[in-house]
Design a protein that fits this description.
Layout: H1 15-18, H2 45-56, H3 60-63, H4 66-72, H5 75-102, H6 109-117, H7 119-154, H8 161-181, H9 183-213, H10 234-245, H11 261-290, H12 293-298, H13 302-311, H14 318-346, E1 356-358, H15 365-369, H16 372-381, H17 384-412, H18 425-444, H19 446-457, H20 459-468, H21 474-491, E2 493-495
Helix pairs in contact: 2-9, 2-11, 2-14, 4-5, 4-10, 5-10, 5-11, 5-18, 6-7, 6-17, 7-8, 7-14, 7-16, 7-17, 7-20, 8-14, 8-16, 9-11, 9-14, 17-18, 17-19, 18-19
């Protein structure tokens, strides 16, 4: 960590963000001395939509949407839950759209908590993300990619665990390299991957709708039979549904790189959520045209079962589409999360080198690579699923805190320019939903949720050790300075210009 703090700099800007880049800084060629080193505004409306859709739609809708059916008790109620979760997620996304247009800084959750509640709360969120949540989430997503990219090669046999881990490592490494090399190509590939997964979903929806129009509606008879529904299961159904929609907030992590954010951010969010909700609902309807509720609950890979019934040998292509979907989610996550670490470094809460830009490629190279070691470690040795279980409730806790911050800012800073403003009822409803899911997690799994909460609280002493106290031992400060200089030279990065 460095001693810089945003609160001690003029106009709230830290020194590393405002430095003019020297002609030869970080090995920069003399003929590039006048060229501005910064993150450009390369995220257009189409790229913004691809980031949101490409990150939300992962493996879940292709593999196992049975959690919602299991807890809702009927086909009709499961479709209602899918629609309701889409609407609630839209409420959250619209709340973030307001925050993104009035606080025009990248960083997402971290930046909004920092603006509303101060540096300590923001650091606790950052700490939990850095040491556990994000590496574990990336590792699980990457392992899904590794498993499904290999499945066509090993069918019908099982895949050796080490082969999955090696394929996973190759996938993670390629994503890190892509994000390190070019913002433009990262965005272009994300667009391609988004269209690929929409094509995959269309290959399910179109045959399903054809079956529906042919009159295959027997599985929808008594769709709202409530005999199997338990009120205690409905919150769990909503919890599963909200998890499936998670990812609508990632465009807010790159606000500074969005072209015309006042228009692009709300428009991209509304278009993306409409597309995702429609795809999710229609895909589930398509499943039920060829599968009964019992068959869907018995399947571990719903899309594969559907393809086997409708497409015969073509079903072998489904794992490939699932792998592409996971790869797109990985790419979107790395692209967005690197900007959060970039902003946290700029605010003085992470090492200074993380807020530096590669002199030629104009990518936040160090911020991109920061999750790589921990993610690889989790892939090979971590008990990832347990880690996600006791960390999952923290996601909704901090998202609820962010939206609570929006309501708080409405009263503490009423004159803050708000180019896009949502009715107050929208953030209120969404905030209450988030805190209800937090309560549900604590009630249903108090041990794992408590462990996750305890891990996040280790950020409190870390904040005072690394951030709050100005007088560090000289040997520690020298070591931190040396670390920053060494990485700056090795990665050929320089402070970004504003």
């Amino acid at each position: 960590m460095t001693k810089r703090s945003a609160s001690t700099q003029k106009d709230g800007k830290v020194a590393a963000s405002g430095h003019k880049v020297s002609q030869n800084a970080g090995g920069k060629p003399p003929d590039e001395g006048d060229k501005k080193v910064e993150l450009g505004k390369k995220v257009t409306l189409l790229r913004g939509i691809s980031i949101i859709i490409g990150t939300i739609i992962g493996a879940g809708i292709f593999i196992s949407p049975k959690g919602i059916l299991m807890h809702s008790g009927s086909i009709g109620m499961s479709l209602v839950v899918w629609i309701a979760c889409g609407v609630l997620s839209l409420f959250g996304a619209l709340s973030y759209a307001e925050l993104g247009t009035c606080i025009k800084k990248s960083g997402g959750h971290y930046t909004y908590i920092l603006e509303a509640f101060g540096p300590q709360m923001a650091f606790i969120r950052l700490w939990a993300d850095l040491i556990a949540i994000r590496p574990a989430a990336m590792a699980v997503l990457s392992l899904a990619f590794g498993r499904y990219i290999l499945e066509p090669l090993f069918m019908p046999c099982g895949i050796p665990p080490m082969a999955v881990k090696l394929a996973t490592t190759i996938g993670i490494t390629s994503i890190m390299c892509l994000n390190s090399m070019s913002v433009t190509w990262t965005a272009r590939i994300q667009i391609f991957l988004t269209f690929s997964k929409l094509l995959a979903i269309s290959s399910i929806i179109v045959p399903g709708m054809y079956q529906l129009f042919k009159g295959e509606t027997k599985h929808f008879e008594n769709a709202f039979d409530l005999s199997n529904m338990k009120l205690s299961g409905m919150p769990l159904a909503f919890y599963s549904g909200m998890y499936a929609y998670a990812g609508w907030f990632y465009l807010n992590f790159v606000t500074e790189e969005v072209d015309n954010p006042e228009r692009t951010l709300p428009l991209a969010i509304c278009i993306s959520m409409t597309i995702v909700t429609s795809c999710y609902v229609l895909t589930n309807v398509a499943y039920y045209t060829v599968m009964s509720a019992g068959e869907l609950l018995a399947s571990d890979a719903v899309a594969v079962t559907f393809a086997q019934k409708m497409m015969g040998n073509f079903s072998i292509a489904v794992p490939f589409f699932v792998a592409l979907s996971c790869y797109g989610s990985m790419n979107g996550c790395v692209f967005a999360l690197s900007r959060m670490f970039f902003v946290a470094s700029r605010e003085g809460q992470l090492p200074e080198v993380l807020s530096m830009i590669h002199v030629r490629r104009h990518t936040p190279l160090a911020a991109v690579l920061i999750l790589y070691p921990m993610t690889i470690l989790q892939v090979f040795v971590g008990d990832i699923y347990s880690l996600l279980n006791f960390m999952s409730f923290l996601r909704w806790l901090f998202i609820g805190v962010v939206v609570l911050g929006l309501i708080y800012l409405r009263y503490t800073k009423p004159d803050l320019p708000r180019p896009f403003k949502v009715p107050l009822i929208i953030p209120v409803v969404f905030c209450l939903t988030c805190f209800f899911m937090v309560f549900l997690s604590l009630y249903s799994d108090p041990v794992n949720s408590g462990i996750g909460f305890a891990i996040s609280l280790t950020g409190v002493p870390a904040y005072y050790v690394f951030i709050y106290f100005n007088h560090r031992p000289k040997w520690l400060q020298r070591a931190l300075d040396s670390f920053n200089r060494t990485l700056q030279i090795l990665l050929v990065v320089v402070p970004a210009e504003l």
